[in-house]
Amino acid sequence: MLEVKVVNLKRVKVDTLVVPVCEDHEIHTDNTVKSLIGAAKAFSEFKGKKGDVITLFEPSETRITRALFFGLGKAETLTGESFRAFAGKAVKACINAGLSAMTLATPSAAELTINAETLFGTLMEGACLGNHIFDRYKMEKEKTPVKTLVLMGTAAQKKAYSGLAKSVAAICGASVMAREWVTTPSNHKRPEAFAELIQKAASTAGLKTRIMDDRWLEKQQFGAMLAVAQGSSAKPRLVTMEYAPKDAVKTVVLVGKGVTFDSGGINLKPSGSIETMKMDMSGAAAVAGTMMAVARLKPGIKVVGVMPLVENMPSGTAIRPGDIIRSYTGKTIEIGNTDAEGRLILIDAMAWAVKQYKPDTLIDLATLTGACVVALGEKIAGVFSKDPELAAGIVASGEKTHERCWRLPLPEDYKELLKNDFADMNNVSSGRWGGAITAALFLSEFVGDTRWAHIDIAGPAWAKKASDYCGAGGTGFGVRLLCDLIDKL
After folding, report:
1. CA gap 447, 298 in Å, rounded
2. Is 343 a catalytic residue?
3. Is 200 a catalytic residue?
4. Helix or strand or coil: residue 196?
């Protein structure tokens, strides 16, 4: 439970109080909190520097069992992400200590360079996102999430930000759901099983959901998607989720790549690259998670999630390099590399979505290229769009949520690298460089004149090690970003 509450620290019993502290500036106005900070700073090992941590037990003249103090460093360096990270770290400290409730002493926004809504929002996000444990495959459940998360505030702040708490809880809950899907091993989320997991979750949110099977895909001539799936004994699925309020004047379609395991196919991935390929459905997980949040946030526009789900495996029936396939639009594609499969399932899904829903805006998310990771590293996604306003909106939402993105170009002359002597296109570039760009250009050929953006999340979709508010594994990257973007659209 997440809530904003008025707390008198001298009268109300508090099990665990968490206090952020600056080394060079007082950021609190509550006199009891200021007194507690003075007591903490009386110890030589705690001065409020970044990384400093100290605990005081049963401080005098209060009903607090324990007070945890976290140093943030200098006040001028603090941003929304600083408080998001602090709150995540604080919740994790409580989880590790086996504590069930946490009360957070909210600083005064007047003493900071960020506004009150951002301050409360980022603290809530960090607390919710950090309060997650993925242990479903462990016999012994060693840790338990914190049950009650309280942010201290005035009566006016409680009134102003109680609604914010509900929306943050919905969005972060959806992000955690996406994380769990990504981290789930591939043997438990083959296309049919993953489709059912999505449908089950959607039913609780009241979303209209459809699962289309391989026979439907064949009838509709999803040739590219079926070609990728043909090497696996697991049949492909196309899943749609719809949120359609009355009188909606705009339609946004989100398409997420859903390769539940990517072996690379005949072009088999080597050791060092194949082990984490259960995460190659992160785009689909982010889209499904976003739809779950949308159902609770209830924006005034129609939002549709489209998720093509396949397993890319090598076998006697798998597509081969040199094969020529026909996509949903009728364009033919020669397979230059079977490990460039994500773009094949996306083009059929996107072309169908454009025809079916006639969206005002189409956005796809995909763990598409290693080239994007080379360009931007593991923490920043690449954004491609011919619409500067849409690209800027995505980047701005990424800045706000700290799901960072960087716009990359779509030069027309690079399309020459996709030309083929025997088919309309090749699925990979004829050159070695610019793989993220040529992959995006390949996708652009199948969206027509629709306002479109592609987000390559190959880097930030998976975390090799835990951060302040995200454990190792799936990150749920994209859910918070898309929710913020949809709110602006």
Report:
1. 27
2. yes
3. no
4. helix
**Which residue pairs from 296-299 have beta carbons closer than 8 angstroms and sit at least 24 positions apart in sequence?**
296/167, 296/170, 296/205, 297/167, 297/170, 297/171, 297/483, 297/487, 298/245, 299/243, 299/245, 299/486, 299/487
Say if residues 343 and 442 touch (Cβ distance below 8 Å).
yes
Query: Of these residues, 92, 190, 302, 343, which one is catalytic?
Result: 343
Residue 35 and residue 54: Cα distance in Å, rounded? 15
Closest CA to 380 of 359, 399, 356: 399
**Tens-place pLDDT, residues 371-412:** 999 999 999 999 999 999 999 999 999 999 999 999 999 999
Look at residues 94, 167, 242 and name the one whose alpha carbon lies nearest to residue 479. Answer: 167
Distance separating alpha carbons of residues 251 and 359, to the nearest angstrom: 5
In angstroms, the CA 207 to CA 200 distance is 10
Residue 361 pLDDT: 98
313 contact partners, CB below 8 Å, separation of at least 6: 231, 232, 233, 261, 263, 265
User: In the block, which residue shows the tokens 């030309």?
Assistant: 419
Catalytic residue among 5, 269, 331, 451: 269
Amino acid at 35: S
- What's the whole-number mean pLDDT along residues 330-356? 98
With 0-12 / 13-18 / 19 or more C-beta atoms within 10 angstroms meaning exposed / middle / buried, residue 229 is: buried
Strand partners, 364: 255, 454
The pTM (predicted TM-score) of the whole model is 0.97
